[in-house]
Amino acid sequence: MFNLLLPLVMLAVLFMLFRSNKKRQDQASQMRSAMEPGSGVRTIGGMYALVKAVNEETVELEIAPGVVTHFAKSAVAAVLDPQEYDAIINGRPGDDEPVDESAVEEEAADSKPLSLDKDVPEGVSDKGGADGEAPASK
């Protein structure tokens, strides 16, 4: 009985592995077929772009205004919703994240401008030592 059970379990495990892999491939194929000009995508390298044209095996992506590149369809990891793409590219919060305008204004008022002036005490030059002397070494 045990001799028959072990091969059956192994076959069942192999069947489940092949089945899940096939499902994943079908989902990726459906996602890539949903690509159309104007939709936002994320590549497997993490780059966000707009689809300009879809060919048989390649897709033309606009990665910056006026800059169009060619990618293999398999290099597209996800097709994004227009709202999600806009939120990522333009830094706009989603619909579920309200923006508190007063907090933004307070934060801008509290920040002071960056100053590149050095506060050098009297008697010390900006060369490291006092009155032109070399800095002390350890």
| Inertia-based shape | flat
Question: What class do helices, strands and sheet pairing give?
Answer: alpha+beta
Q: How many β-strands, per DSSP?
A: 5
How many strands, what sense, and barrel or not for the largest sheet? 5 strands, antiparallel
β-strand percent reads 15-25%
Question: Counting H and I runs of at least 4 residues, what is the number of helices?
Answer: 3
Q: Please state the average pLDDT score.
A: 77
The residue ranges in which pLDDT falls below 50 over 5 or more consecutive positions are none
- Spatial sequence of strands, sheet with the most strands: 4-3-2-1-5
Radius of gyration, CA atoms, in whole angstroms? 29 Å
H-E string = HEEEEEHH
Work out the helicity level. 25-40%
State the distance separating the first and last CA atoms.
80 Å
